[in-house]
Amino acid sequence: MRCRSEAGLRRRVAGMATALLVGLSTVSYGAVNAGATAGRPEASEPSTPSLEFTNPNSQALFGTAYEAALKNLLQTNTISYDPAVYNKSGLMDPDAGIVRAGGGYPQPWTRDASVNSWNATSLLSPALARNTLWAVVGKGSDGKLQVQQDDQQWDQVIWVTAAWNHYQVTGDRTFLQEAYQTAADTLTIRGHATTAGYDSTYGLFTGASFFNDGIAGYPAPPADATESVSTGSMPWPGVATGMFLSTNEVYYAAYVNAANMAARLGRPASEVASYRSKAAALRSAINKRFWNAKTGLYDYMLLADGTAGPYQEGTGLAFALAFGIANKSQARSIVAHAREMTWGMPDTYPNWARYSDEQPGRHNAIVWPVVQGLWAGALARQGAQEDFASETARLADLADNNSGFWEIYNGHTGVVDGGWQRLGDTVKFHWGSQPDQTWSATAFLNMIDSGLFGLNFGDRGLSVMPTLPAGWGDVTMRGLRYRNATLTVALHGAGTKIRSFALDGRRVPGDIVPASLTGRHTIDVTLAGAVDKDRDGDHIADSRDRCADTAGTAALHGCPGPGHIESEDALNTGGVKTNVNHTGYAGRAFLDGLWSQGAASSYTLHRATAKPGVGALTLRYANANDDARTMTLSVNGQKVRQVTFSRISDSWDSWGTVTVGDIPVSGRRPVVTISYEPGDNGSINLDWLEFHSTS
């Protein structure tokens, strides 16, 4: 929610984030096998890998989103910092920047810094990740390093898992030594806290759930119907003393990873055993108090008076799978019974009584990409190929359709939507959804890195355990930096079963790339065991579907025909996004944001023939400006002509059409683009496009 207090909310309103598995699968690694580089490895430049699918439709869907995610993390949201503000730890590199939370949120924040580091930053830019992690660490009055607490206790605790992951990825022993002292001191503080501390009656930690820092994420009780106490969560007594699934899972992971750190550093056996004992006790309490055999899922909450909350928490279910808290039977049950919305795994579900499909809560029955990423990573870990494919395709679509990675989307329509919440009084406030959200982008990067390619980091090195769904086609990642090596990783076939694993053409025992590898190398993995169904419901098996995750027609091998394409399904860039704040549109939404140069909407015309031809293009649009507006029409990047959009009426609820003839096309996948170029004045809304061949 990013409204950590009412004052903070008002400041932001006035001034107006595996696939978790790269980091969290390391929970299960022991700290044995001394294969990591001692000290700090050689500094490396940020890695900007390329993603190449042999299937052009997969490239258009996933490759486009991947490039946007890399830009989001390594350019848009990598910023310089004020040492007086952020280097309280004294451990930051003045030559490296930090990663901010995203558009509208210039801070790194402890939770966001941690999630973004384990999702992608530690792999793609170790120096940037290290700086970002240290940016949220300070020193106590005794001079000891402590993770800073923003407004919630898990802000401190989640850092521990991110730090362990950073070490596993980089082998940076100097970082590990300092991180362990930070983790140990921070966990001691949390263990003795009187607010949001340990409840010995239940054997669980109290305090707000990991993700839900706003009261919209909670039913009543502990909330009330008018959210009268606060927009934040911790001011509510029932939240502060309640126990929530994801928070206790975060503590469990922190204890496991503190034990891993201690063992790797050769700390006394009693120290390691203490952390492992606390982790085991917490896992047992989580399963005793939260598992619900009737629903086949973990409950969301347990209030101090014993009231259970049999609701679904997307993050909590993802953590249960990723951290290994759920046993095999429970894991199968979670995958089978978890409810997803049309556009992905929601935060909490279903709607609380005070919200609805028309007005979803900011943290209730609404889709946050950061949650989608955690869930997709957990699905890949369970071998749930079809579910993983669908969740990854949803987020790729959301990014491609909306000019990049936003903060929150409506779970039913996929429209950019910040959700609803009380603003500290009786007025229900509709939040904005912020653009360029870092943890939304790193969620997708992790879907690809840890889900699709199955990159898994341990003391011995890098293992590859891919999940390549049927219909996506072979895929290659080039230019991936891993410690002191630069890797090309190529996946062939489909499925999760590794038939062959070769490094530079030679079989590697154990399917592991050693951490000591240097220079440029190629990994080839051939897969089998694909589940071949019909994910998009177009009656074509995924293995034969040229557009396996976009419903199409049999005549075009599963790809949508050019006869009618909704604008909300186009590749939209330059600030163009979906909206539903006017009436009369077709489909699930229309497009706005065609307001400045660089805004564009691109439509792939899947044709039955590759022969050159000519056609007529019809666009449905709204123009309530005082005059006619113009946009530029291009085909495959080549300008064809300027199109005039006449004024329709004085209402944006009125729609009209314009038809342009003699449009030249060739190939099976020509791309038609409507863009705001120099000489245009734009500022229209778009509803759909139709193309019909005339020769």
Q: Key features?
A:
695 residues, Maltose phosphorylase, domain 3, 16 helices, 6-hairpin_glycosidase_sf, Galactose-bd-like_sf, single chain, Jelly Rolls, disordered N terminus, 6hp_glycosidase-like_sf, 3 domains, globular, six-stranded mixed sheet, Glycosyltransferase, alpha+beta
Please tell me what the overall shape is.
globular
Could you tell me the number of beta strands?
35
Going by helix content, strand content and strand pairing, the class is alpha+beta
Mean pLDDT: 92
Under the CATH scheme, the architecture of the largest domain is Alpha/alpha barrel
User: How helical, in percent, are the residues?
Assistant: 25-40%
- Widest sheet: strand ordering: 1-19-20-24-21-22
Q: What Rg is obtained from the alpha carbons, in whole angstroms? A: 25 Å
Largest sheet: 6 strands, mixed
Quickly name the level 1 CATH class of the largest domain.
Mainly Alpha
End-to-end separation:
53 Å
Instruction: Classify the fold: give the CATH topology of the largest domain.
Output: Glycosyltransferase
Uncertain runs: 3-38
Count of domains: 3
Q: What fraction strand?
A: 15-25%
Helix count equals 16
